[in-house]
């Protein structure tokens, strides 16, 4: 370790550390020299020694400068290692010394350490208590305001996208040869046909659960047979369409966002616009139209599987065969319940398709942006599906349907 190159003070000089083992341990040495003060820094000031460094700073007995500011020399000749954490601690220590009336200036700084100090100084850190001092009410109002602005922007953009899709569909009625039929069939296969298995399984299981719980609750009143009526009404009006829509929102809506978002990241959408090709007509309309066609069919399959799951439980729990189950279902459930569930599906499909493609068009040029908008697509789609289903349920019930 290099020896200290300053002259000894009049009070007997400094006690130097003689071994490498001692030099590696962070330490501080505070001395008064004539009318000023010297603070020497030893050892490795690195993140592995943060606790030891903090203890050394706490043990530093420098008092206050008294009348007027006093010069303080911070000698770094004995410093054997420094990283970002150590440099921040040194700067914090200097600020502490300034608050006590000293005027610190650093000497014997290596070039690499000076670069590190300059980098940290150019990026001032916020005080830890700043966030705690801010008003909770103001933060709440700010968050609420940003949420309202975000919701308003989403409503405007979704409405604008619905208008563009409607305009494109009207244009296809006039010029049907512009419809990309191959793309439409492709998306119908992926969003519809390949979703049959998972939707059938989910609806079958949910139908079985509804039937089993209905029987258990109505058995106390000797009204088990009414559980078939309950299952039929719930499955046809709400459960079938809601389960199918949520599955499609999480499956196909996210896929639409990822596909269009990837094209946006590779600037393919901008290239289409440069070539005079409408991204709405080419990318969005086939996907939305495929969902509008596929979702009613998937909902019908989901309804059937819900009833099938209920029929299985009815046979196991109440010993009702399939023919008796169907007869009871036909007597207790009106066909209007089936129409009520089915009439929602085109609107739900439109919302899922619009939100999924719109979030894809919002993707910027990073993978983080793609993940953010895929997540937003799923959350917004499911939320809007539930809101739309609730609005239809209340409106149709109010008019007696």
Tell me what the structure shows.
This protein has 401 residues and is an alpha/beta fold. The chain folds into 2 domains: 20-125, Transcription Regulator spoIIAA (2-Layer Sandwich), CATH 3.30.750.24; 152-398, no CATH class. Helix content is 69%, strand content 9%. It is built from 14 helices and 4 strands. The chain has helices at 20-24, 50-59, 84-99, 111-122, 130-133, 136-174, 181-191, 196-218, 226-265, 268-274, 279-318, 322-332, 335-361, 367-398, and strands at 27-33, 36-45, 70-82, 102-107. The protein has a 4-stranded mixed β-sheet with strand order 1-2-3-4. Strand 2 (36-45), helix 2 and strand 3 (70-82) form a beta-alpha-beta unit. Helix 2 runs parallel beside helix 3 (84-99). The chain is elongated, with a radius of gyration of 36 Å.
Compile the SSE list and pairings.
Blueprint: H1 20-24, E1 27-33, E2 36-45, H2 50-59, E3 70-82, H3 84-99, E4 102-107, H4 111-122, H5 130-133, H6 136-174, H7 181-191, H8 196-218, H9 226-265, H10 268-274, H11 279-318, H12 322-332, H13 335-361, H14 367-398
Parallel strand pairs: 2-3, 3-4
Antiparallel strand pairs: 1-2
Helix pairs in contact: 2-3, 3-4, 6-11, 6-13, 7-11, 8-9, 8-11, 9-11, 9-12, 9-13, 9-14, 11-13, 13-14
């Amino acid at each position: 370790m290099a020896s200290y190159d300053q002259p000894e003070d009049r009070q007997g000089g400094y006690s130097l550390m003689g071994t490498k083992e001692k030099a590696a341990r962070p330490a501080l040495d505070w001395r008064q020299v004539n009318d000023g003060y010297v603070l020497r820094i030893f050892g490795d000031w690195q993140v592995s020694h943060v606790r030891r460094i903090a203890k050394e700073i706490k043990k530093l007995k420098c008092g206050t400068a008294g009348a007027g500011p006093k010069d303080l020399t911070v000698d770094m000749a004995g410093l054997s290692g420094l990283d970002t954490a150590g440099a921040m601690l040194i700067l914090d220590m200097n600020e502490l010394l300034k608050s006590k009336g000293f005027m610190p200036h650093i000497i014997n700084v290596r070039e690499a350490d000076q670069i590190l100090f300059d980098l940290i100084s150019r990026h001032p850190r916020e005080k830890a208590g700043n966030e705690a001092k801010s008003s909770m009410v103001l933060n709440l109002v700010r968050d609420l305001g940003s949420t309202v602005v975000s919701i308003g922007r989403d409503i405007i953009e979704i409405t604008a996208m619905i208008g563009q899709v409607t305009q494109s569909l009207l244009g296809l009625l006039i010029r049907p040869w512009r419809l990309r039929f191959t793309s439409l069939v492709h998306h119908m296969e992926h969003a519809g046909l390949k979703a049959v298995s998972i939707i059938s399984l989910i609806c079958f299981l949910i139908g079985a659960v509804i039937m089993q719980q209905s029987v258990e609750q109505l058995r106390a009143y000797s009204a088990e047979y009414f559980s078939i009526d309950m299952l039929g009404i719930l499955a046809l009006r709400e459960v079938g369409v809601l389960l199918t829509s949520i599955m499609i929102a999480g499956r196909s809506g996210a896929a639409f966002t990822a596909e269009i978002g990837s094209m946006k990241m590779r600037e393919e959408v901008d290239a289409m616009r440069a070539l005079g090709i409408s991204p709405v007509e080419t990318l969005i309309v086939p996907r939305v139209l495929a969902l509008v066609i596929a979702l009613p069919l998937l909902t019908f399959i989901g309804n059937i599987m819900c009833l099938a799951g209920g029929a299985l439980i009815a046979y196991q729990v109440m010993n009702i065969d399939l023919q008796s189950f169907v007869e009871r279902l036909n007597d207790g459930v009106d066909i209007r319940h089936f129409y009520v569930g089915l009439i929602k599906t085109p609107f739900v499909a439109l919302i899922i398709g619009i939100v999924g493609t719109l979030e894809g068009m919002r993707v910027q040029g990073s993978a983080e942006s793609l993940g953010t908008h895929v997540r937003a697509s799923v959350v917004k789609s499911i939320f809007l599906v539930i809101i739309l289903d609730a609005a239809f349920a209340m409106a149709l019930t109010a008019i007696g349907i």
